[in-house]
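User: New here, please read:
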Amino acid sequence: MRLLSHASLRQLFVLFSLIVGIPVMLPHRAAAAVVDQSFVTPSDVHFAILTGQFIGQTYTAGITGRLAAVSLDIGFCTPGQLCTPITDTSFPMQISIYDTVNGLPTTVLGSATLPAGQAAPLSLLITFPQVIAEIAGEQHAIVVNFPGSTPGSCCPFPNNGIWLGSVVNPYPDGTILASLDGGVSWQTDSRLDLHFQTYVDSIPEPGTLVLLGTGLLGMLPIAWRKRALTPLRDMRSHPPLIPAAPPQ
């Protein structure tokens, strides 16, 4: 407050303009992304993404900001491992973020593609070229499919990937979902959730910036009043010299 009391009116106007300009500059700043939603343990389920399927996991954002990246836990059943059937890795992996209505995917907000044969472990951060806004309390879905892959015959059904998850300690703010018709209709199962993490560039609440800017605006009359009183204060501390009357 002492600093502001000595600031000039012009300096306060500049400072107020900077505060008001912060919301405009926020989308262009380089901010460190933080982990928002995380479900990575335990790993008691190996969920096969069957050929031609869309498999997803819904989540509820806890931070308002821009979605910076997601990580999944998708691998392959390869020769030499004790698993069957062997994964068909000849198709690229598409990862999409969907908006949801009543817990089901609706509109695609952004997509990224990994080349054929590349797994998606939790250590891999998957970013999106689109700007995807996250609002605390709203739900989105991470959906994975393999373009070009078509449903196979039984048995066993062929798969394009293995997504790890859990039925022991499921994620409380979302659920697994699956589509067999290219994302037209969806099925869910609240008993099972798949591993994922979301990373968000957080943005300060607009109300905080408005309060700060309003407070600075309220200080402008005080600063102006102090400037107006300064000459009077100086006059009181240094009274003008009155020449003595000449002797009669």
Observations:
- Residues 61 and 235 are 62 Å apart (CA to CA).
- The chain has a mean pLDDT of 81.
